[in-house]
Write a structure and sequence with these properties.
The protein is of the alpha+beta class. About 35% of the residues lie in helices and about 25% in strands. The chain starts with a helix and ends in a 6-residue tail after the last strand.
Length: about 300
């Protein structure tokens, strides 16, 4: 399935949850009793395999009683949070699915002599740098380059800089010397129980000051076209029941029992949530391949 379509379905259900949470915070438990959902639903499961990691999202699919209500749009605040979560997850999946400990992270900056004025200027310099790397790779018969980069502008000094992740195979000193615009630092990638989710979240973080804001029509990050997308099997409806999700939320089912549903993987994080207005049970599970597993 297209990755964007899967995210939009997950986000669609998240919108309802966030709106209901805000209603809850504003009007309290009395409104909960009046707005309690009385229709039927099943639990849907979406699995996303990315590298050595697996994300599982389980949420209710509602069958609305009575006439279908007019579709409502989320507030700008909610949509902003959902868009940011979407960006973070999408970058996380691409990184985990395409890079390993053998690959590199780079921090690239500009000295006063080469300091660009606009985002487009930075983009041009970055693309030229990638072309030089590709030329070197082609000339020396090295594996095809994979990369992902984010362009940022400093919140304190307003200076442009680039965070880049790229495949290994080229000497790190050579990579740094090829930049030629200012400072260049390289590091080996370090994966934790969630892969490089923390790094991805940092790289596509929401701008916090006006000086860092870039036109919304411009993507702040870019990637090579040869990156493999995560594997997303067909949705499973009813694979896990509402009662099971409820028992997980209450702690009546331990992690080891849940891991039996996903052979070869170990749970690294589990986040259940009960929507007190529509009585829907939501569950997000993060897993990592068990060492020596053949999955």
């Amino acid at each position: 399935q297209p990755l964007n379509a899967v995210f939009m379905r997950i986000i669609g259900f998240s919108i309802s949850s966030l709106i209901l949470i805000l209603i809850n915070q504003r009007y309290g438990q009395v409104l909960h009793m009046k707005r309690k959902y009385k229709g039927k639903y099943i639990q849907r499961e979406i699995r996303i395999y990315h590298g050595d990691y697996l994300d599982v999202n389980i949420f209710p699919v509602f069958k609305k009683p009575g006439k279908r209500k007019k579709k409502t749009n989320p507030s700008s605040e909610i949509q902003k949070k959902l868009n940011q979560t979407y960006r973070e997850n999408k970058v996380t999946y691409l990184i985990n699915n395409n890079f390993s400990k053998k690959d590199l992270e780079m921090g690239l900056g500009f000295d006063d002599e080469h300091l660009p004025e606009t985002y487009k200027d930075v983009q041009k310099v970055t693309r030229n740098y990638i072309r030089r790397i590709k030329h070197y790779i082609s000339k020396n018969d090295l594996p095809e380059l994979k990369y992902l980069y984010v362009i940022e502008r400093g919140a304190t000094n307003g200076r442009w800089h680039i965070h880049m992740i790229l495949s290994g195979g080229i000497d790190r000193d050579l990579l740094e010397s090829m930049w030629g615009q200012g400072y260049a630092h390289t590091y080996r990638l370090e994966f934790d129980d969630n892969g490089l989710k923390g790094l991805a979240k940092y790289k596509v973080k929401e701008p916090t000051t006006d000086v860092e804001v870039i036109d919304e029509k411009i993507h702040r990050w870019a990637a090579s076209k040869n990156l493999k997308k995560p594997t997303i099997p067909k949705d499973r409806d009813g694979f896990i029941s509402k009662d099971t999700v409820r028992d997980i939320r209450k702690g009546d089912i331990c992690e080891r029992e849940i891991e039996r549903l996903y052979p070869g993987y170990t749970i690294t994080d589990i986040s259940p949530y009960l929507n007190t207005i529509n009585a829907g049970e939501y569950l997000t599970i993060s897993l990592r391949k068990t060492k020596n597993s053949r999955v």
